[in-house]
Amino acid sequence: MNVFEKLPKSLKKTIRYIYQDITTLEKLDEIEKELRFHLQKRKNQLEMEK
Predict the structure, then answer these.
(1) Cα angle at 30 between 47 and 42, to 5 degrees?
(2) Are 18 and 31 in contact (CB under 8 A)?
């Protein structure tokens, strides 16, 4: 079983969206910034819990 198959359904949908529906670099950059923001925010929350 590869890593992709182990991911939650919502994340799989996001990845598929990126590959199938993103047609410009601008859109891809926007999504990348948004994902980075939320990943960093969650990372900070988890670090605070330690």
Answers:
(1) 10
(2) yes
Q: List, for residues 6-42, the tens digit of each pLDDT value.
A: 999 999 999 999 999 999 999 999 999 999 999 999 9
CB 15 within 8 A of CB 22: no
The single-letter code of the amino acid at 28 is L
Structure tokens at 12: 């799989």
Question: Considering only CA atoms, which of 38, 31, 37 is closest in space to residue 13?
Answer: 31
> Mind spelling out the 3-state secondary structure of 1-50?
CCHHHHCCHHHHHHHHHHHHHCCCHHHHHHHHHHHHHHHHHHHHHHHHHC
